[in-house]
Amino acid sequence: MRLSGNLSLYLGRQFLKNVGLICGILVSIIFLVDFIELLRRAGDKENITIGLVVQMTLMRLPDLTQKLLPFMALFGGMLTFFRLSKTSELTIIRAAGVSVWQFLLPSLVIAFLTGAFVLTVFNPLAATMEAHFEQLEAKYLEQRSNLLQLSSKDLWLRQVDPDGLSVIHARGALNQGIDLTEVIIFKYDRDEQFTSRIEADRARLRDGYWDLTDVLMTSPDQPGTVLDTMRLDTSLTVNQIQESFASPKTISFWELPQFINTLEEAGFSAVRHRLYWHSLLAAPVLLAAMVLVAATFSLRAQRQGRTGLLVMAGIATGFVFYFFTDIVYALGMSGGLPVQLAAWTPAATIALFGLSMMFHLEDG
Question: Where are the domains of the chain?
Answer without folding.
Answer: 5-143+270-363, 148-242
